[in-house]
Amino acid sequence: MGSMFRSEEVALVQLFLPTAAAYTCVSRLGELGLVEFRDLNASVSAFQRRFVVDVRRCEELEKTFTFLQEEVRRAGLVLLPPEGRLPAPPPRDLLRIQEETERLAQELRDVRGNQQALRAQLHQLQLHAAVLGQGHGPQLAAAHTDATSERMPLLQAPGGPHQDLRVNFVAGAVEPHKAPALERLLWRACRGFLIASFRELEQPLEHPVTGEPATWMTFLISYWGEQIGQKIRKITDCFHCHVFPFLEQEEARRGALRQLQQQSQELHPTCPPKRFLSQVLGRVLQLLPPGQVQVHKMKAVYLALNQCSVSTTHKCLIAEAWCSVRDLPALQEALRDSSTEEGVSAVAHRIPCRDMPPTLIRTNRFTASFQGIVDAYGVGRYQEVNPAPYTIITFPFLFAVMFGDVGHGLLMFLFALAMVLAENRPAVKAAQNEIWQTFFRGRYLLLLMGLFSIYTGFIYNECFSRATSIFPSGWSVAAMANQSGWSDAFLAQHATLTLDPNVTGVFLGPYPFGIDPVWSLAANHLSFLNSFKMKMSVILGVVHMAFGVVLGVFNHVHFGQKHRLLLETLPELTFLLGLFGYLVFLVIYKWLCVSAASAASAPSILIHFINMFLFSHSPTNRPLYPRQEVVQATLVVLALAMVPVLLLGTPLHLLRRHRPHLRRRPAGRQEEDKAGLLDLPDASVNGWSSDEEKAGGLDDEEEAELVPSEVLMHQAIHTIEFCLGCVSNTASYLRLWALSLAHAQLSEVLWAMVMSIGLGLSREVGVAAVVLVPIFAAFAVMTVVILLVMEGLSAFLHALRLHWVEFQNKFYSGTGYRLSPFTFAATDD
Amino acid sequence: MLEGAELYFNVDHGYLEGLVRGCKASLLTQQDYINLVQCETLEDLKIHLQTTDYGNFLANQTNPLTVSKIDTEMRKRLCGEFEYFRNHSLEPLSTFLTYMTCSYMIDNVILLMNGALQKKSVKEILGKCHPLGRFTEMEAVNIAETPSDLFNAILIETPLAPFFQDCMSENALDELNIELLRNKLYKSYLEAFYKFCKNHGDVTADVMCPILEFEADRRAFIITLNSFGTELSKEDRETLYPTFGKLYPEGLRLLAQAEDFDQMKNVADHYGVYKPLFEAVGGSGGKTLEDVFYEREVQMNVLAFNRQFHYGVFYAYVKLKEQEMRNIVWIAECISQRHRTKINSYIPIL
């Protein structure tokens, strides 16, 4: 937990990896996931790097893997993930893997090729059979006889050279979408010297390559003359038709058809050489999963190695990496272990660095979701105060303030509890549904949210919008009735009656915990709750924001910017607490000191607060305590006086420190540099800005680049944002009230409109029981869908906003970047 | 058509315009070219192209990689994008896109006819045809013997049909006639396209008309240049010029009389736009007229993206992509032939 408060110390480490052992070292680091490599070759393009050949080989291999995978998928088999952790193979193993996969792929290709050839042959035969059997016969034959009978006399009359004119045939099949175009083109090109008949195949044939069913159009063209024939052949060629020989005699055709059918039947059983294929696929199934993981790791290692630079002697590779200081011993050990074989040991040592290190916050399964909420806004600056540990409590609490209902909270809690208890089950882990995964990842968050909702539900005294009376109510109706002597006639006339707490015995004292259940019967229930919830929202808001400002103190102290304590945090706190803290004080003071007895002349806080800013007083509004106006005036003046301090303090301080620095720069700079060089070992031990001196030095560096106007502008924006923000953020916390009101009212409406109508429908037990079944079902479904899911999401959203905007902008910059270590974890999963 | 394309343009074409602008963002930048030029082998080139929006489009190519494989794959990609645009387009954008394919179709038809004349196999020539200009009846082109045959039998159903009206003749298809046919087709195609854009009005006309005018003028110059020393008569030459553009009509008449490059240059000197182009020819780096025209075209097409709500972006994108492909092919050729001295004479786009 301790590491949650701020991100861990991260150091820049230089790794000297002996060339022979570099691969094993990096692959070991990938297994451990300790370091994030920095790219030392950013200026070198991808193909000029050192290990590009190896990367390319891995890619080649991956290409083959994809082919194999595709084949496996086509065969309808499923690849199982490999068992156990597979380390990245030594480089020499790559050749073996490559050979094996190549051989497998080649065999598979051969088998596929054979199969394909057979299928193509079968397809061709089937098409041919279809063309012959399509029944163009009779029609064409008719056309044939018609033509002869009509034309013979005409042609014979001149007795010219056309005597040997006879009808020829072209038969074939074409894809349906091309058929109309083909028909038209034939007609145009050949000027009607042909008769073409097109028919669609009744049953679709399997496409030889894709295996999908495809229909074909068969056609039979009869034509006159050799030239036309050539043209037709050209045209059919260019439409990629399958053209088959078409015998003229009916019997011959039938004979050919029979032969074709016989052939295709012979082909059919031999078609898939299944057994050999399944043998090959079985070997693929064994080889592929581990191979994929191994090659993937190998490629990752080479890509990491590509980021290293080569030492001048070419004996070792130099890598720079970010590593958590806590992990340094583990890193050293890992390097030692993996390089002992080679005789030369790999070394890691810290080097000083001017860049901001990445942010590393270790989380466990409980804190991860809360850290996630914070990181979604922005990853924290290096070593900045991390709001996540506080969010663990405040987030579910603020959510619960808006969601307060024992019943709904309990449902949520049980749902989350079920997920928490089942979290180790493989089926739950493996679920792919994205929505489910979102809920599952936030299970601990949901658990706390449910728990807190139960708590606030008890305070609001609401369970599915009904009040529970665990303790006896503090109000006594009997006492009131006895004291004021209500008669039966009086009771009959008045629908509503007032309980007066000033009458003795009516108000016995506050309810032990939460809101008195008697309020749920009262007509002014809502106005009572509104007043309570509104004030509560403001109190929670001011406390939350003040806590945010206080957290800023730890940032200033840690980064050695002590001046900001005095010039920023103090004015901010004074402004916030002087104005809105005072409002909170007024609220609590009035709760404690104004009793029901003086209710008639109770002072109005709202009027007091307005008067405070106007420096006036209204005679009708009784002061809360003596000398109130003096206190108020002092507070306002103090708060307003803080604005110029906040506006000008930091810029003036920085400028004052900056000026002497400027003057002594030419000489001082060199000395500093020298000192920096001499201090190197020292600095490497101290690390980045962990001690104040160093941070101060860095500050100087920053200031040297800053322009006064920029500093002023920045601070002005900050000041305006803070002062206006105090007002608007306080108002923003009123969403707690609004949302909780909305939730209470919605559940009230649901109860009144569905459940209580159902309960009142019938007096007979049997009927009532039957009627209640669907009504309760509707109530339950609507409770879950509207009140739990919809309202829950909206309350979640608003709680999120309150944390990101109202709370975190007081101290959190969120401008860092995450440490993303080089790891194989994703590949192993 | 109503003015004010802003109001209704996005209803029909907004999606595609957004898409084409996104595609334009994937064009290679100057930095990419600098990296490409440094490549030692085609494999390097492939690796670098993988880091750009081309992605692993060469992943399925078997080794060894050749320039023509790269070219084919790039064309396929462009064609895929264009098909997507076309399948999702509504009128009148789809007509506009059809007009765009016409120029490729003309080229393909001419290519096939030339091939048939030289008795080359259809398959071999089909490989050279631009995929954007493909149509079903294309392969049947070689059965035609005269232009009217060609028209009546094959092209009558294609979008090219209207352009044929001027070039119906019973001449046999020899090499010269084919060339004339191409130029006549091109002429009537450009005129029709120009008319279409002009009639469409709005921003499309504002953007497309200058581009097409430039295209027409370029053709006029190129025709003139290519006709020097051939048997083409001056009258015939004049009939090939597209009848619009900045040169039309006086410039074209002067061009028709030109007899060598200098005279042509004199004609261009009358026009502020073309004077600097001709002056750049042969200057530093030994640029040809063609290069200069390409550069100017790229410039105009890039500018087309500065305005919104018009169809010109589709035209400009395809032309820019073509230029990019020419650049990559040029660089790849230089690399594979180990002829690095001229590798830098590509035309950067962005």
Walk me through the structure.
The complex is a heterodimer of chains A (829) and B (350). In chain A, the strands form three sheets. In chain A, strands 1, 2, 9, 10 and 11 form a five-stranded antiparallel sheet that branches. Residues 141-163 and 665-703 of chain A have low confidence and may be disordered. With 829 residues, chain A is of the alpha+beta class. Chain A has helices at 22-32, 52-74, 91-132, 136-156, 179-190, 226-238, 250-270, 274-305, 328-339, 368-377, 388-403, 406-421, 426-430, 434-441, 443-460, 477-484, 488-493, 525-558, 562-593, 605-614, 628-663, 665-678, 680-686, 692-705, 708-732, 735-759, 765-807, 825-828; strands spanning 10-18, 35-38, 167-174, 194-200, 205-206, 213-214, 217-224, 242-244, 309-310, 316-324, 347-351. Chain A folds into three domains: 10-107 and 285-350, no CATH class; 115-135 and 166-274, 2-Layer Sandwich (Alpha-Beta Plaits); 366-474 and 509-655 and 709-810, no CATH class. Chain B has helices spanning 5-25, 30-37, 42-51, 67-87, 93-117, 122-128, 147-154, 175-200, 202-227, 234-240, 250-257, 261-269, 274-280, 289-304, 312-336. Chain B has one domain. Chain B has 15 helices and no strands. Chain B is mainly alpha-helical. Chain B is globular and about 55 Å long. The longest helix of chain B is centred in the middle third of the chain and has 26 residues, at 175-200. Helices cover 64% and strands 0% of the residues of chain B. Chains A and B meet through α2, α5 and α6 of A and α3 and α7 of B.
Short description:
The complex is a heterodimer of chains A (about 850) and B (about 350). Chain A is α+β, with helices and mostly antiparallel strands.
